Structures are given as C-alpha cells and as structure tokens.
Amino acid sequence: MSHDHEHDHGHVHADHDVSQHDPEAAERNKVPFYGKRIYAIRDLLIKKGILSREDVQREIELMDSRSPANGARLVAKAWTDPGFKELLLRDPKAACAELGIDASGVTEVAVVENTEAVHNLVVCTLCSCYPRTILGRPPDWYKSFAYRSRAVVEPRTVMREFGTVLPDSVEVRVFDSSADVRYLVLPRRPDGTDGWTEEQLAALVTRDSLIGVTEAKTPEAAAVTAS
Amino acid sequence: MKFSPGQKVKVKMGEPQGHVRTPTYVRGKEGWVERVHGEFRNPESLAYGGNGLPREPLYMVGFRQQDLWQARYAESPSDNLYIDLYEHWLEGVPNA
Q: What is the ipTM of this complex?
C-alpha cells in the first residue's frame, strides 16, 4: 500500500493500514466508540505533556498486579487471627499494609462482615466504584447496567442467579458505593474447615464472594473445582 | 459535622446538573446516619477542575429497602441499603 508518511495532513486514517508504523493501531480500530475515545484522550494527554507513555504503562502494570488473591489473603488471615480481623474491620488499609498489599490511594476502604444474621452485597449504581487498589479491575458484569440497576431493588433475586439462596431470616444489606469509600465483603468461614491453613482457606475465597453475590466456597465445592 | 450516628436524616430533593453522587432513588427518602466517614473534597466541584474545598462530611446513610421502593421491594422486609452521602444533600428529621 502506498502512503507517504506526512502526518499533518488532517484526515483520519480509516481505510488503510497504519499498523505498520503504529503497533497499536490495528487493535485500536477494533474497539467500539468509547474505547477509541479513551485512546484519543490518552494520546492528547501525552501530546500535551500531562502524562508520559511510561506513566500510562506503569499504571496499567500496577493495576494488573492487583487481583482478588489479595482479598482472599486478607479474608483467610481474618478467619484464623481474631486480632487481624478486628484490624481489617477497623482500619482496612492498615490490615492491607500488614500483608504487604499497597492499598494506598485517595479512596477509603471499608470492610463489611457477613454473619449468620447479615449478608452484605456491594454495587455501584452510578458507575463502577470497586476496591481496585486491593482487587484490581472489576468483572464486566459488575459494570453492567443490569447489575447496577437490579442489585439495589432485587438483591436476593440477583444473588439467586449467582446460585446464592439466603433464608428470609438473614438480613440483606446492599452497599451502594457512591462516593469516596470502596467496600469489600468479609465472607463467612465455611463449615468443615477447622484446622485449615491460611493458604487452604484462601483458595475458598472467590472474587464474587468479596463482592457478596456468592458466599465463600465450601470444601466440597472446592474439591469439585480442583478435580 | 452536623449529624452523628443514629440520627435520622432526609435526603434533599432537587435535580442539579453535573457530577452528582446522590442517585435519584434516594432523593426525598428518610434514613439514618450509620457511620461518619470523615471529610472529603466535594466531587461536584472536583469533577470540573475545582479544588473541592471546603471538605465536606461524608456519611454512610442507611435506609429500609421498603422505605426506598415501597411495594416495589418484594423481598424481605428486614433488608436495608447503605449509601454514602455528602452533608449538603442531607437535612435533619426530628427523631420520633
């Protein structure tokens, strides 16, 4: 394909292959409107010198280094160490620091505990607020219009679709994280796990149980998944 | 700090434009202050390049689900919802 590499000619490269000189361009052309807009905003911020390409890359790598495994470690330790559980509920950032998890950042974190009498569920109806500094990126369904609009008005029905059936005697508390605080659920420790190590227990703590749409896995369910 | 835990509050009505963090489904509804989170910069100013100052108290406010949705809430009557609201969205309600 012939194409001179003069780039200030003011038209959009829509109909020819620019991926030769821009390795990202092919990928960029596949994404929908809002994705393209994000790329355009990023490029503008770089061009204006507000961010560098390295800043963007560093932030992506930092975000990718966070995962629900951090949440599982916090929960497993809280299940085995009452002092740590007390700290996790009172000062989640300090509890994270104790396990070497960097949860610093502008948003606050609150941990809400499931008990025999109370089950907690987290949603962000306005956008996609999520404890990203601990768990990384939220799942796509968490950001969906369906989850955001239904979790507040029919939480038990939504949870049932995730396989979670709670008796009416258990109070359901929905947390709509609308402002500067991110919520993390501390699920109940499953029965039949006496004497388990933190590592074994952490394997029962799923991302979805940290959001509250499910409970932690039972030992039986974990055995099925492992086999 | 105008309100303390346990105090009854009502969310103000209104349809202000902009980056408002108070969803419409809680506007005009009565609940209670569950927890005081501290003071934060006001996102309604921050979102538009402002400095968000003065900082505003942020409260975790609890609502009975049936008070939010009335008959539309068809699940357990003991269920509750908690949401974080900035002080300028709240007004006091006399405790009955």
A: 0.96
